[in-house]
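To the wet lab folks,

You asked to see what we're planning to order before we commit. Fair enough. Below is the target structure as tokens, and below that is the sequence we designed to fit it. If anything looks off to you, flag it before the synthesis order goes out.
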């Protein structure tokens, strides 16, 4: 806008959000995208894919020794996921709040997990938990050419042919 001359620091922060196979099966993709759009974040990457075992092993490397790890990988490979990159000020931290607690029973109403999930092993959505992890996860799930840089246009552009 013409009234503001600079953008707050960190407005280019990015995070990886993914609708997990249960979220896709339950037709929650649109709802989840809508929450991030209406919050004001910018969608800069989006794709549906069947995740490979190697991508999932890399993604959940830190959890490889957990007892639930094999079932986690099976769950994440059980169907397509919708992977997204969202951009905006503090998007990593805000996304974690929007997604809600890992344990569905602890997730507050109003969060994705608090509204749509009853068990930790089927918790609908993923969001990166730090800026460093987000950078790693974005490069794991997306090629740089799949990320789209686009600018907010003035409303008048809608009628300018
Ligand atoms: P997060 O997804 O909230 O970041 P993490 O601790 O990174 O949570 O765990 C990754 C995913 O592993 C969780 O979202 C959930 O799907 C699964 N998970 C974590 N803890 C458990 C558990 O105790 N039982 C079953 N699945 C779990
Ligand atoms: Mg995590």
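Sequence we intend to order:
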């Amino acid at each position: 806008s013409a009234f503001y001359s600079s953008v707050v620091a960190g407005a280019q922060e990015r995070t990886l959000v993914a609708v997990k196979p249960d979220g896709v099966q339950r037709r929650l993709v649109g709802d989840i995208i809508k929450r991030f759009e209406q919050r004001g974040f910018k969608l800069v990457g989006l794709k549906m894919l069947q995740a490979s075992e190697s991508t999932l092993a890399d993604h959940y490397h830190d959890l490889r020794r957990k007892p639930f790890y094999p079932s986690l990988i099976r769950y994440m490979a059980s169907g397509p996921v919708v992977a997204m990159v969202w951009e905006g000020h503090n998007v990593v931290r805000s996304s974690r709040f929007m997604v809600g607690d890992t344990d569905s029973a602890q997730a507050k109403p109003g969060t994705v997990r608090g509204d749509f999930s009853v068990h930790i092993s089927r918790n609908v959505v993923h969001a990166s938990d730090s800026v460093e992890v987000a950078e790693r996860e974005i490069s794991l799930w997306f090629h740089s050419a799949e990320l789209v840089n686009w600018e907010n246009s003035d409303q008048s552009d809608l009628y300018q042919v």
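Structural context that might help your review: The CA atoms of residues 17 and 127 lie 4 Å apart. The longest strand covers residues 42-49.

Thanks,
Computational group
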